[in-house]
Specification:
Blueprint: E1 2-4, E2 10-12, E3 41-45, E4 54-57, E5 60-69, E6 76-82, E7 88-92, E8 94-96, E9 104-110, E10 112-120, E11 126-129, E12 135-139, H1 147-157, E13 161-169, E14 172-181
Antiparallel strand pairs: 1-2, 3-9, 4-5, 5-6, 6-7, 8-9, 10-11, 10-13, 11-12, 13-14
């Protein structure tokens, strides 16, 4: 599981986040993906996508649960669970031509933001501060892989600043991962 930075470089979540906010700056260089790309998305080459990664499938943020490849066309097809509604969505990859004679299959991935954890409420939601200093009350946490317990444990240890990686979908936000920043990197 990972993300792309504003320069198009892939970073694995296993190695931590390298930027305070992951954004894309500049137009997407692909042709013909249903009239253009959705806001707050970034293109991801299909060879980087694994089961468990987050993609935009049919316009919804989803976690990939199955990947298939057509033996005839080589096109990738992704099945995922919507992170907010828990419905299944499926979509095929699209083709881009970054330079002549180069064909790349891509999918759309969400753009993540990183918020600082200020507190964890009794109902399992997080109180966090954005990069602009706004305080978000009651930020829900993804209910998979005991993420809330891991965040609570890191926050209780107090050995650094706990940050949550947040996915935004039309105003609704969800914490999908976390990391601990130690004193030298605050």
């Amino acid at each position: 599981m990972g993300y792309y930075d504003e320069d198009g470089h892939y970073h694995s979540f296993r190695h931590g986040l390298h930027h305070r906010e992951v954004t894309i700056s500049g137009p997407r260089r692909s042709e013909g993906h249903r009239g253009g790309r959705a806001p707050h998305t970034v293109t991801i080459p299909c060879h980087h996508i694994r089961i468990g990664d987050m993609l935009i499938l049919q316009g919804r943020p989803c976690q990939v649960i199955r990947i298939t490849t057509s033996p005839h066309t080589g096109q990738h097809r992704y099945l995922g669970v919507d992170l907010f509604t828990k419905q299944l969505h499926e979509e095929s990859s699209f083709i881009s031509n970054p330079s002549p004679s180069v064909v790349v299959q891509n999918m759309l991935g969400p753009v993540f933001k990183q918020y600082r954890v200020l507190d964890i409420r009794d109902d399992g939601r997080v109180v966090a501060m954005t990069e602009t200093g706004d305080v978000k009350q009651g930020l829900p946490v993804l209910d998979q892989s005991s993420l809330l317990a891991k965040i609570e444990d890191a926050f209780a240890n107090g050995r650094g600043s706990v940050r949550v990686l947040v996915l935004n979908d039309e105003g609704r936000e969800l914490a999908v991962d976390y990391k601990v920043l130690h004193g030298s990197r605050l």
